[in-house]
Structure formats: C-alpha cells, structure tokens
Amino acid sequence: MKDMVRTSDAVPSVDEDGTMHWPVTLLFPARGISEMVQSCAESASVRDLVAAMLPATRGSGPPAPWDTEGAYTVDNVSVFYRTHETPQVPAEALWAAQIEGAEAAADDDDADLAASRPAADEPAREWIRVPLAAPLVLPLLQPDCVVPGMPVLYVVPSGSEAESLMRRDNGGSIRELRVPELSAP
C-alpha cells in the first residue's frame, strides 16, 4: 500500500541569488488532473510554468499524456487562481509548529484553524484570470490569494465550457490581473 501513495517534500526555497522558488500545483479541472512543478522561480512567467507541462501549439510537441484531444496548448489555455481558496492560517500557528515541533503544535492546530475560519462573513470566492505574461509572483502578491501550502493555478482551454462555468460562478464576468509595466532603469 505504501508504494501506491507518493508524497512530495517540495517546499518553497530561496536560491543563492535571493530568488524565491515555489512548488506549484496546476489543476486541469475539465480533465480532473493535477500536475506539480517541483520548483518555479517567482520571477518565471506563467507561460513558462504552463510550457513545462504543455506544447506551445498544436503539433509543436507531444500533448500531455492525459490530453487525448490535444486541446491543451500554451497558446490555447487560460490560467486562473481562486480568491480565498483556503482559510488564512495565522502566522502564529505556523511559527508555533516550527518552534515547538509538529507534535506539540498538533494539539493546537485544530483550534487555531477553527479560529481562523470566518463564519457567515466569509469572503466570496472569485476566479481571477492570470495573464500568461505575468510572473508567478503577481498572483501571489494579491491580498485575496491565500496560498494553501503551495500556489495552485487552474488551467482550462480558452473559450471552453469550463471557462464559461467559471464566468458564470463569477456572476458573468472574470477580472484579469494587470501586469505592471516596468520602466527601464
């Protein structure tokens, strides 16, 4: 049974240049598939991240093994994150687990998590489109993007039924993050 379950020890890290690297989960909800990138620099574009899993265009490379129709290509997908995906865990609870050890903090984790969950005033969840040109750090910097251990991005074919359902869930429209223009030094 142990061989049937694989876990990942991928954790955020900082390289020698001070760049943060994140493990990232890409969810393909229309296919019920998830893929994990072990390490992605926060400065890498979402396009680069998606290109690690998908061919650039139809016929430019083999499709993902689960994409029997060839519908998923970098140039034919939309990428989203979901606001308030998970309750925000208070920093104190995270530090307690590190300082006191996982066993000592385990008793308090349930209470800390329960206390951190908003009740009736829970913020509404919303789908936000992330431009392929955006660096990974852009959605991570948004105040409504709560990272559940590692960033989670949703990938759907552009114009697909899955994208239409997301739009419907949002009340008919989808906001898109704007990639800031950087001026030359």
Automatic annotation (TrEMBL):
Keyword Plastid (UniProt): no
Gene Ontology molecular function, alphabetical: Hsp70 protein binding; Hsp90 protein binding
GO terms of biological process kind: protein folding
Gene Ontology CC annotation, any one: nucleus
Entry keywords, A to Z: Repeat, TPR repeat
Keyword Repeat: yes
Coiled coil (residue ranges): none
InterPro entries per UniProt: Csn1/TTC4_wheel
Domain named Cns1/TTC4 wheel: residues: 15-85
Pfam families in the cross-refs: Wheel
Name of this chain's protein: Cns1/TTC4 wheel domain-containing protein
Organism: Cafeteria roenbergensis
Lineage: Eukaryota, Sar, Stramenopiles, Bigyra, Opalozoa
